[in-house]
Amino acid sequence: MQEILLSLLAGLICGAIFTALKLPLPAPPVLPGVVGIFGVFLGMKVYQFAVSNWPF
Fold first, then answer.
1. In angstroms, rounded to a whole number, what is the distance separating the alpha carbons of residues 56 and 54?
2. How far is CA 36 from CA 6, 17, 24, 52, in A?
3. Contact status, residue 36 vs residue 28, Cβ threshold 8 Å
4. Which of 2, 28, 46, 55 could potentially form a cystine with 33 if both were Cys, beta carbons 3.0 to 4.6 Å apart?
5. What confidence score (pLDDT) does residue 37 get?
6. Integer distance in angstroms from the first to the last C-alpha of the chain?
7. Residues 23, 15: Cα–Cα separation, whole Å
8. Residue 10 in this model has a pLDDT that exceeds 80
9. Contact 44, 37 (CB under 8 A)
């Protein structure tokens, strides 16, 4: 839980700094960005599952 809160805090600080400096946010549009991050995480989990359960 602490990692999640620290990540959220870092994102809030970066968002405030970028907005104060009138720079574009270094992130994709909201929903596609979240889906992309979820896809990366899901791909990691699928790979870990396959490696641990597949008889190579």
1. 6
2. 21, 24, 19, 24
3. yes
4. 28
5. 84
6. 35
7. 10
8. yes
9. no
